[in-house]
């Protein structure tokens, strides 16, 4: 006991002399011989960590009611998210509202869509997560495989928000979105990675960036951000090293019950959405694809089923941009309203219309960026183009909204082509001051074309091949049927009609295919409960039109193998149509100075139109190039008779090759008119011609076309073979070697280019195990012998030098060191 007493006493003394409270204050020393009192620690009162609703919503707060309540106070923005909306699917669309000049090289404009994604708000612990939901892979949630689909398609989290508090009745959570919308979040950025790279963007400057506004509407929320980036190579105002954008974020609640999708069929042209469905009981997952279309539902389904025209519950409405010049508004409106007759074929009346936007007094919150409204934007840009993009629900293909975009300078392209392609037969086109009503008609048809895209229709490049060439010279035929079976082809003008043809329609219009495709995509099929229920009826509609070229759909491809699906062509015979076209173009070329510079007293328009005239000639030639190695594609289901792929006849291909030598590879002296050339440039004429001839050569001497012709021999033993084609091409391009005549500068350039193209084919590793190498080598061996003989009997010195140069080039190709 005594041994323990001393340490205890010392410990008591230590505590009484140097005691600290928990708050860090030194306690007073105890007096000796006084009874030690119990020490009570002094503690600070802890602050409550739980925020109250009134901390965020009070008398100083502005609240906007809508999909979510938006509370704003002192530059802070709070979303009050109803718990009932957690997990609900919403579409988040990022657009450019205002942009700097030159962004995207002129092909990006105010209103351009940058990104579209399905998002959900989810509760996780004390956070709200904003996640992107993908529909690339799906499965029925009642099946075991659904777990695997979820596990192998983890949804990315865009942002994590702290829950600040709940509302008074605990039905909603409050999150602060200020930092989210004022930071450079890549998933919702208005500057995609390729812009950042091109313009050398370094960072977002927070001091020059802010949230412009956040507005809540019944089914959507619209956020406008003003963002300024430091950039070393901005598209304009380069000395500022700055890019400033105004970005619009639209978030719209997707329908609780998706529209019944309509199954995509490649025999009818529609844009589509797709996914991989792992619910299939087959031995592989199903690749499902649905067309994109608006949700048109009859107000009176019984009357609709009786065959009466019925208005839709919700029509398609486009609002005109207030910036649209007044003189053009009626033509834009007509371009939209023209589709009303087409929708009547599908059983709907007043299904689509154009309106002027409401005034500020009528609707102070109306905005062209509000995703509830579709619009036709008029863009102040020198770009010559128009577009018809749309936003769709990836679950069903339902089009939610679209914005037609018209660029200010686009009508100049149409004026120029009107003069060049129809001026020979159309007196009113022979001027730079095209009559206003005709310009308006062109604009009307461009708008109709873009509206078609916004309705879900892609380009149908087969429709211009549907009509016989000579029918396009008939006034009665063209006034009734137009110049192509659809407005969705690139058949802009009637370049076939000849001087003296009467009452011709020169400008495109809607056609029978438009009625057919809209009926196929939009007509409500009675008693169909799911997409599969519709297939039998949809197939029947297609099969009824099978074999009729008016109702063929042809895909747009960069290098189409199908001669029926080329761009910018009209008529069902390219040789005949292009013959008419070139004949007209020669008349235009002869009169071009009189229709331009002689009227304006300057050469700017002459120079511009001469360049475009060369492009028109190149298009006519390109259509005939498309015949060489052409394979017709007619998509079918097995129940239909006939082949899908059929090579073009040998006779037509040989006729096309002969036409090309006469109208493309021979020097086109009518295009080298010194009365034009000596007014617009001091040099470069030979290079200018070669540039286009190289395009034609590339269209023929390429591995894919030659391989296709080799394969065609398997389908048709009587086809035009690759060996025959290459032989005919060589003989035509080097025709001077078999006669004693000089070779002009344009032909010399073309012949050298031919040898270079053949060299590239021989060096192509993709063809070294095919007959392509054998054919190319054989042709070069033959040509080597030809030019050697020709060099010895050439008339002038330059032709002799040229042939010797060709011989040396070929020798180096065949016998490389």
Rg over C-alpha atoms, rounded to the nearest angstrom: 36 Å
Strand content of the residues, in percent? 15-25%
**How many strand segments?**
23
State the helicity in percent bands: 25-40%
Q: List low-confidence stretches.
A: 1-37
How many helices in DSSP terms?
23
Average pLDDT for all residues: 88
Structural class by helix and strand composition: alpha+beta
Main sheet makeup: 12 strands, antiparallel
Shape: globular
What is the distance, rounded to the nearest whole angstrom, between the alpha carbons of the first and last residues? Answer: 109 Å
What do these coordinates show?
With 817 residues, the protein is α+β, with helices and mostly antiparallel strands. Among the domains are: 1-44, no CATH class; 61-253, no CATH class; 301-394 and 402-409, no CATH class. 36% of the residues lie in helices and 17% in strands. It is built from 23 helices and 23 strands.
Question: What keyword list fits this structure?
Answer:
817 residues, disordered N terminus, alpha+beta, six-stranded mixed sheet, 23 helices
């Amino acid at each position: 006991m005594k041994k323990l007493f001393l340490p205890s006493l010392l410990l008591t003394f230590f505590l009484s002399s140097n005691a600290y409270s928990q708050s860090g204050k030194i306690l007073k020393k105890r007096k000796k011989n006084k009874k030690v009192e119990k020490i009570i620690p002094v503690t600070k009162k802890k602050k409550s960590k739980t925020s109250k609703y009134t901390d965020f919503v009070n008398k100083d707060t502005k609240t906007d009611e809508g999909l979510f309540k938006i509370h704003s106070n002192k530059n802070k923005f709070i979303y009050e998210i109803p718990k009932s909306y957690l997990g609900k699917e919403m579409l988040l669309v990022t657009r450019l509202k205002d942009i700097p000049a030159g962004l995207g090289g002129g092909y990006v404009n105010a209103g351009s869509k940058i990104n579209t994604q399905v998002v959900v708000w989810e509760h996780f612990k004390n956070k709200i997560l904003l996640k992107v939901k993908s529909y690339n892979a799906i499965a029925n949630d009642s099946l075991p495989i659904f777990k695997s689909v979820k596990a192998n398609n983890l949804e990315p989290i865009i942002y994590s928000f702290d829950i600040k508090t709940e509302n008074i009745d605990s039905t909603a959570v409050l999150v602060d979105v200020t930092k989210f919308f004022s930071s450079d979040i890549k998933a919702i950025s208005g500057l995609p990675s390729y812009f950042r790279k091109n313009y050398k963007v370094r960072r977002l400057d927070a001091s020059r960036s802010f949230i412009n506004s956040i507005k809540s509407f019944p089914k959507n929320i619209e956020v406008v951000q003003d963002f300024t980036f430091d950039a070393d190579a901005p598209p304009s105002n380069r000395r500022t090293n700055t890019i400033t954008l105004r970005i619009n974020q639209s978030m719209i609640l997707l329908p609780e019950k998706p529209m019944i999708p309509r199954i995509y069929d490649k025999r009818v042209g529609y844009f589509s959405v797709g996914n991989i469905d792992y619910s299939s009981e087959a031995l592989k997952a199903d690749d499902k694809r649905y067309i994109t279309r608006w949700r048109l539902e009859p107000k009176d389904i019984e009357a609709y089923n009786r065959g009466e025209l019925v208005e839709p519950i919700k029509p398609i409405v486009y609002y005109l941009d207030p910036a649209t010049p007044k003189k053009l508004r009626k033509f834009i409106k007509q371009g939209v309203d023209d589709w009303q007759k087409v929708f009547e074929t599908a059983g709907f009346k007043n299904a689509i219309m154009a309106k002027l936007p409401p005034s500020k007094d009528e609707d102070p919150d109306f905005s062209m960026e509000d995703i509830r409204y579709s619009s036709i934007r008029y863009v102040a840009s020198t770009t010559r183009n128009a577009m018809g993009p749309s936003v769709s629900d990836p679950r069903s293909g339902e089009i939610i909204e679209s914005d037609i975009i018209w660029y200010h300078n686009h009508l100049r392209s149409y004026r120029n082509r009107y003069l060049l392609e129809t001026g020979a037969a159309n007196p009113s086109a022979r001027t730079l001051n095209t009559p206003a009503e005709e310009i308006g008609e062109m604009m009307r048809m461009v708008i109709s074309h873009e509206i078609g895209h916004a309705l879900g229709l892609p380009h149908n490049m087969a429709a211009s091949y549907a009509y016989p060439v000579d029918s396009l010279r008939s006034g009665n035929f063209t006034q009734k049927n137009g110049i192509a079976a659809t407005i969705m082809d690139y058949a802009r003008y009637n370049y076939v009609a000849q001087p003296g043809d009467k009452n011709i329609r020169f400008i495109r219009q809607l056609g029978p295919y438009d009625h057919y495709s809209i009926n196929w995509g939009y007509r409500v099929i009675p008693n169909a409960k799911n997409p599969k229920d519709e297939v039998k009826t949809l197939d029947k509609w297609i099969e009824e039109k099978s074999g009729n070229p008016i109702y063929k759909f042809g895909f747009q491809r960069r290098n189409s193998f199908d001669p029926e699906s080329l761009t910018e062509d009209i008529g069902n015979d390219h040789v005949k149509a292009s013959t008419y076209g070139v004949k007209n173009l020669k008349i235009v070329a002869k009169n071009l100075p009189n229709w331009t510079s002689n009227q304006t007293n300057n050469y700017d328009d002459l120079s511009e139109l001469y360049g475009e005239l060369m492009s028109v000639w190149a298009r006519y030639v390109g259509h005939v190039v498309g015949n060489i190695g052409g394979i017709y594609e007619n998509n079918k289901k097995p129940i239909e008779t006939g082949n899908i792929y059929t090579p073009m006849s040998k006779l037509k291909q040989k006729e096309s090759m002969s036409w090309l030598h006469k109208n493309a590879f021979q020097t086109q002296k009518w295009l080298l008119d010194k009365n034009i050339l000596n007014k617009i440039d001091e040099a470069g004429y030979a290079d200018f011609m070669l540039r286009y001839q190289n395009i034609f050569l590339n269209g023929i001497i390429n591995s894919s076309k030659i391989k296709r012709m080799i394969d065609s021999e398997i389908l048709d033993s009587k086809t035009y073979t690759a060996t025959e084609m290459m032989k005919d091409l060589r003989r035509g391009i080097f025709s001077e070697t078999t006669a004693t005549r000089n070779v002009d500068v344009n032909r010399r350039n073309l012949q050298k280019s031919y040898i270079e193209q053949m060299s590239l084919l021989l060096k192509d590793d993709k063809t070294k195990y095919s007959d392509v190498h054998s054919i190319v080598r054989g042709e070069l061996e033959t040509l080597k012998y030809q030019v050697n003989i020709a060099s010895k009997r050439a008339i002038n010195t330059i032709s002799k030098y040229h042939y010797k140069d060709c011989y040396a080039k070929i020798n180096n190709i065949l016998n490389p060191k």
